[in-house]
Amino acid sequence: MALELHPLETVLRERIVLLDGAMGTMIQRYKLSEADYRGKRFRDWKGKDLKGSLELLLLTKPEIIDEIHAQYLEAGADIIETNTFSATTIGLHDFLFPEEPVAGRKDRQFFQRVVNDVDLRALVHEMNMAAASIARRAVQRAEKQTGKRRFVAGSIGPLPVTASISPDVNDSSFRAVTFDQLRQTYFDQVSALVEGDVDLLLVETIFDTLNAKAALFAIAEVFEKTGKKLPLIISGTVTDRS
User: Fold this and answer.
1) At the topology level of CATH, where does 7-236 sit?
2) Are 167 and 100 contacting, i.e. CB atoms less than 8 angstroms apart?
3) Which among 78, 99, 80 is positioned nearest to 89, based on CA atoms?
4) Which of 88, 113, 172, 220 is 20 to 30 A away from residue 15, measured at CA?
């Protein structure tokens, strides 16, 4: 019995498929203020400034994200990416985790508190669900207008910390995070994206192979847990520091 192809695989056998472009640079065009990022929900936030937390706009300015998706679809994109490049507990901690590291250095104990933080994990789930929903509505409108099949890719970006590289130039043996902490932060994101019904997953611009392995391990766990397997695209960033 032949396995049924995913709709994306069917389209790929027929023609070239176009991915959308960057989200961050499009958002920059709106010249948003701190108040814009905060919105009503985070107006009284007592922590760090939130300007620059692009994923927060999913909750405070969803109409902007929707508008950007629509522009890419109108330009001919077949696949649009959710605005979730940094929508992980570790990816958002610089903005939304209130604690500061002990002795000024972010270490494994610090990031364990980050990945276990109940409020931050709930916010990550909400953001990824919202991102999938916003992108899906944009795709459905485009499909209705053109009759052309479009797809939503759940964007999974690199993290600000890596498992292979020390953030301390004076201590090459130091590692800020463990593999399991990376796996957990990716698992929370991927679970929400799959629950939000994206069509495929896109592991973006990974520059640390161990981080990539953690992301793929988490994805495999979610697939096994949910019984749902989606197409997966992996893109990497290669740097030459020799």
Assistant:
1) TIM Barrel (3.20.20)
2) no
3) 99
4) 220
